[in-house]
């Protein structure tokens, strides 16, 4: 079932979200200061490409730099990304067929707000440990 949902998601919005996050990641990686944010954008982009069957978990080894980076990300980009996912999710939930895709957009909100210090794992192991 998750494969069918991922293919439909890919056609409807996943590919465009993926491209947007990849372009944002490339732009962020131009500067040395933006590299951690660019890597986070790449991670979110891959997650936005195939959201069904995956979830995010907090990394226990993420420290204060992740917290500071998340605050910067929230102020500069996260807020706008979250609003975009909320609006798109609500629009998709208008139809019965679009409800799973709206939920997938809502699932992207936490990682779009605070991407640093999070890891994307398959849903069959949501409590994966990081090394």
Please tell me about this protein's structure.
There is one protein chain. With 131 residues, the protein is mainly α. The protein is built from 5 helices and 2 strands. The protein has helices at 2-28, 35-49, 64-92, 99-107, 109-113; strands spanning 54-58, 118-122. The protein is globular. The relative contact order is 0.17. The model has no long low-confidence stretch (mean pLDDT 86).
Main attributes of the structure:
131 residues; two-stranded antiparallel ribbon; 5 helices; 8% strand; globular
Report a brief summary of the structure.
This protein has 131 residues and is mainly alpha-helical. Helices cover 65% and strands 8% of the residues.
Strand arrangement in the largest pleated sheet:
1-2
What is the helix fraction of residues, given as a range? 55-70%
Low-confidence stretches: none
Tell me the radius of gyration. 15 Å
Summarize the topology.
Blueprint (H helix, E strand, L loop, with lengths): L1 H27 L6 H15 L4 E5 L5 H29 L6 H9 L1 H5 L4 E5 L9
Antiparallel strand pairs: 1-2
Helix pairs in contact: 1-2, 3-4
């Amino acid at each position: 079932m998750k494969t069918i949902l991922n293919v439909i998601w890919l056609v409807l919005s996943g590919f465009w979200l993926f491209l947007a996050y990849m372009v944002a990641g490339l732009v962020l990686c131009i500067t040395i200061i933006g590299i951690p944010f660019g890597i986070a954008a790449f991670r979110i982009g891959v997650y936005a490409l195939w959201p069904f069957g995956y979830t995010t978990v907090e990394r226990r080894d993420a420290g204060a730099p992740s917290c500071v980076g998340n605050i910067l990300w929230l102020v500069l980009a996260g807020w706008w990304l979250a609003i975009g996912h909320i609006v798109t999710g609500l629009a998709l939930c208008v139809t019965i067929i679009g409800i799973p895709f709206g939920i997938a957009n809502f699932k992207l909100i936490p990682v779009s707000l605070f991407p640093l210090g999070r890891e994307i794992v398959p849903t069959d192991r949501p409590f994966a440990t990081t090394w």
